[in-house]
Design goal:
With about 375 residues, the chain is α+β, with helices and mostly antiparallel strands. Helix content is about 55%, strand content about 20%. It folds into two domains: about 160 residues, no CATH class; about 200 residues, no CATH class. Strands 2-3-8-5-7-6 form a six-stranded mixed beta barrel. The longest helix is centred in the last third of the chain and has 44 residues.
């Protein structure tokens, strides 16, 4: 029982930790692979930077300069966003409406599975078209499948829905990524927000290995585009999503190791239990040991007998612990708790169970092997 609980606990704890780690990574990756988020940072009015930097957000020219000069970008999109009341036939929602460029779809992994995403012509002509997330479509139309080619109202303008996005699920902060409205950038800037400022820029880098170089290059390009002199702090910040993944992964890995170590204590306790049971067994089977020695049994035969018994007990406990862990992880998945069973941990737990049997079974086996045959035969 000690080994069953110990092995099962180790596998379950590690599976829960790795399941949570994978969930975090999937949620971050769903927001876009190798993404840099460039945000305007308003300088303090009394700081030195305020005299040399703009007091506005990014411009279309900034985005265009970045698109033309960068050598690491896979996709770039300017973004404007604001909370708006969106009206549909079956309801009204207050939601953050994003004005984006066509490359936003690739940069943030927002792909259309019904209809199509707006194109460059929609930006130039400032067309009143929209792409909706599935949650938003269901809230506005009662059924998401009814939304395509229908209209919604935002402000004083009506927008035709030309596409519905694939489901993405929850973001890292728990918010629903499917509750979203996307409009062409120029349309949102002129018809909705009435601004020339871009809130932030989304940039997807070609390869994760180029992230640091892309950050340096992006900083230089935007500083030049915005006319920021050397030695003056930039009026924007660049957030690296890969760093978020690494931090979340390291934190989750540390917690998983801690959980496994705590669960591993029960394996140690199980080993002590085996040792105690084997010591009792040696005492109760003293006459049997004496008879074996009297008919020619050697000390190493007695040692091997009791050592193998302890190891078999541990291995059986380990196998039953693995079965317990698989059943427990299955029920946890049904309950909505993410788990990911690592085959390596299963193998290590099994070997460790056998190792526990050898270590804690050695002392009782050695004690049995060192009994004198005459004394053993006389034992009552």
């Amino acid at each position: 029982m000690g080994i069953i609980i110990g092995v099962g606990s180790v596998i379950i704890m590690v599976a829960m930790g790795e399941g949570s780690q994978k969930l975090i990574e999937d949620r971050i990756n769903s927001m876009g692979a190798n993404v840099l988020m460039i945000q305007y940072r308003r300088p303090n009015a009394r700081s030195v930077e305020a005299s040399y930097t703009r007091r506005t957000g990014f411009s279309i020219e900034d985005v265009q300069s970045l698109r033309e000069e960068t050598s690491f970008a896979l996709a770039i999109s300017g973004v404007v966003q604001n909370n708006q009341d969106v009206f549909g036939p079956e309801g009204t929602v207050r939601i953050r409406v994003h004005g984006v460029e066509p490359e936003f779809s690739m940069a943030r992994n927002y792909f259309v599975d019904d209809g199509y995403f707006f194109e460059h012509d929609d930006l130039i002509n400032r067309n009143t078209v929209a792409v909706l997330g599935r949650t938003t479509a269901a809230n506005l139309f009662g059924n998401e499948d009814y939304a395509l080619q229908e209209q919604i109202r935002i402000g004083n303008n009506y927008y035709t829905i030309i596409g519905l996005l694939e489901r993405k699920g929850a973001a890292l902060d728990g918010s629903d990524q499917d509750d979203i409205v996307l409009l062409p950038l120029d349309t949102a800037m002129t018809r909705l927000h009435r601004t020339q400022e871009i809130t932030h820029i989304i940039m997807s880098v070609r390869n994760r290995d180029f992230m640091d170089a892309a950050i340096l290059e992006t900083d230089l390009i935007l500083r030049d585009s915005r006319g920021i002199p050397d030695r003056i702090r930039s009026d924007f910040s660049i957030q690296n999503q890969v760093e978020m993944i690494d931090i979340a992964t390291d934190t989750s890995r540390t917690l998983t190791t801690l959980l496994a170590a705590i669960a591993g204590v029960s394996l140690f306790v199980g080993g002590i239990g085996i040792m105690n049971i084997m010591l009792v067994s040696v005492t109760e089977r003293t006459r049997e040991i004496g008879i074996r020695m009297a008919v020619g049994g050697r000390k190493r035969d007695i040692l091997f007998q009791f050592l193998s018994e302890a190891m078999i007990l541990s291995l059986l406990g380990g196998l039953m612990g693995i079965m317990l862990a698989f059943f427990a992880c299955h029920f946890l998945e049904l309950a909505g708790v993410p788990t990911l069973i690592n085959p390596l941990i299963v193998a290590i737990s099994s070997l460790f169970a056998a190792f526990v049997g050898i270590i804690f079974g050695y002392y009782p086996a050695r004690k049995a092997a060192r009994l004198y045959p005459i004394d053993a035969l006389r034992y009552e």
